[in-house]
Amino acid sequence: MVTNIFNGEKKNSGFGKGELYERLDTFDENPTKINGEWRRIGNIPIINGKVMDTVYKDFQDKTKEGHFIIFADNIRLTALNFTRLDSSGNDNYPGSAIMTKYSIEEDSIRERFIYGNSYGIEWYERRHNNESVRKIDLIGNRLYIKNFNPDNQSGNIIIFEKDLS
Fold first, then answer.
1. Mapping DSSP to helix (H, G, I), strand (E, B) and coil, where does residue 121 land?
2. CATH number of residue 85's parent domain
3. Is 27 domain-assigned?
4. Contact 68, 78 (CB under 8 A)
5. Which pLDDT tens digits describe the chain residue by residue (165 residues)?
6. Is residue 159 within 8 Å of residue 147, measured between CB atoms?
7. Helices (DSSP H) in the chain: which residue ranges?
8. pTM exceeds cut of 0.90
9. What does each C-alpha distance from 71 to 28, 56, 147, 148 come to in angstroms?
10. Residue 25 domain-assigned?
11. Strands 96-105 and 16-24
12. How many CB atoms lie within 10 A of CB 147?
């Protein structure tokens, strides 16, 4: 089934803009072990190669902050926002949205950047050839994704919990 959706506006001048979307019903044709919706619940900092204590964050308080991912077949969608205050106390981080194409390779996820807002693009430009390979571990309804910089032996392990609702 294919559904076309047009969303647009017309100005008084007779000109306007619009977007045309086409829905393709190919979801769940090639599921992976991580398909589904995931919500970040915490992270484990790694500083100078040393694993630190787990820091849990409850995003259930409906604040402006959160980090969510959806895996569907070989596409990952990510939306996140955290408060990042500058020296004047202003939040200077508008959040990020990213879409990647991914594959699971043994204990790792390989992702190739497809689309994102400016912060998503900036994050992937730091990676060679817009590609990222990270270690993952799936334990029950928790997914652990390791972000690690071998140059300074630092990073974190992000903990996500699967949305079972």
1. helix
2. 2.40.128.280
3. no
4. yes
5. 344 444 455 556 666 666 665 665 666 677 889 999 999 899 999 999 999 999 887 666 555 677 889 998 889 988 887 777 788 888 777 778 888 999 999 999 999 988 887 777 776 776 667 888 999 999 999 999 998 888 889 999 999 999 876
6. no
7. 118-125
8. no
9. 10, 22, 18, 21
10. no
11. unpaired
12. 14
Q: Say if strands 108-116 and 66-72 run parallel, antiparallel, or are unpaired.
A: unpaired
Report the C-alpha gap between 31 and 70 in whole angstroms. Answer: 12
DSSP-based three-state secondary structure for 124: helix
- Dist CA 10 CA 106 (whole Å): 50
User: What's the domain range around 43?
Assistant: 34-162
Number of structural domains the chain divides into: 1
124 vs 97: CA distance, rounded Å? 12
Could you give the CA distance from residue 141 to residue 151 in angstroms, rounded to a whole number? 32
Residue 121 makes CB contacts below 8 A (sequence gap 6+) with: 113
> Dihedral of CA 21/22/24/25: which sign?
positive
- Give domain status of residue 124, yes or no: yes
- Which of 16, 33, 55 shows the shortest CA–CA distance to 156? 55
